[in-house]
Design a protein that fits this description.
Elements: H1 2-30, E1 40-43, E2 48-49, E3 52-53, H2 55-69, E4 76-79, H3 90-100, E5 108-111, H4 117-131, E6 135-139, H5 145-154, E7 158-161, H6 175-192, H7 194-197
Parallel strand pairs: 1-4, 1-6, 4-5, 6-7
Antiparallel strand pairs: 2-3
């Protein structure tokens, strides 16, 4: 019994250390802003309302628009599906917003697939392979950078990240909650792969 208790204690300590290191990595990678150049800017989806991007998605689209203007990539890919009953998708709402903001329609590609980060990146990876594109600048929230980058690279993309610094997901009062969530989500994905990516709530 004494040996068993020691094993349990060591396992708990090891798990705690792993989570602490992962949390540090989440925060460190959140500070990275890599602006290409790349084949495409990829905007990871977030909620939309009847074709209008909600604040989280709009903040990501603003970042993508700025990157496009800086010529980080010659095109923007929006991604994300819709919920039952939705009149639009995250990808379509994002594409329409970018076009309204002056990005040429020919340079915006919508991939209306995915209800979570892995599904979305899987669809983007397939579309980029079909087009002969390989490198991507991922646009998402800072705390989501580590996990989305890891997934994209595992799916064969040469991926870097350039997060939005505005929007509801970036404010300091809520940072601890987002870091904790992403720490658990990244740990689940690291240990269990695609299956682990679906253990927490849907969406990026």
């Amino acid at each position: 019994m004494r040996l068993l208790r020691r094993i349990v204690v060591l396992a708990v300590l090891a798990g705690a250390v792993y989570l602490a290191v992962t949390a540090i990595r989440v925060v460190q990678v959140a500070g990275i802003d890599d602006r290409g150049p790349a084949d495409a800017i990829v905007v990871l989806g977030a909620s939309q309302r009847n074709g209008s991007p909600a604040p989280v998605l709009e903040a990501r689209l603003e970042q993508a628009k700025a990157l496009y203007a800086e010529k980080a990539a010659p095109r923007v890919v929006t991604v994300g599906g819709g919920q039952p009953g939705d009149r639009s998708t995250e990808a379509r709402a994002g594409k329409e917003w970018l076009i309204e903001q002056g990005v040429p329609a020919r340079d915006v590609i919508a991939v209306p697939t995915g209800t979570d980060t892995y599904e979305s990146l899987e669809a983007v990876s397939a579309e980029m392979r079909r087009q002969g594109w390989r490198s991507a600048v991922l646009v998402t929230d800072p705390w989501h950078e580590l996990r989305s980058r890891a997934m994209a690279r595992d799916l064969g993309l040469d991926a870097v990240t350039s997060p939005t610094r505005t929007g509801p997901s970036t404010g300091t009062p809520r940072s601890a909650r987002y870091v904790a969530r992403e720490t658990l989500a990244y740990a689940a994905y690291s240990l269990l792969g695609e299956r682990g990516s679906r253990l927490l709530s849907k969406g990026p």
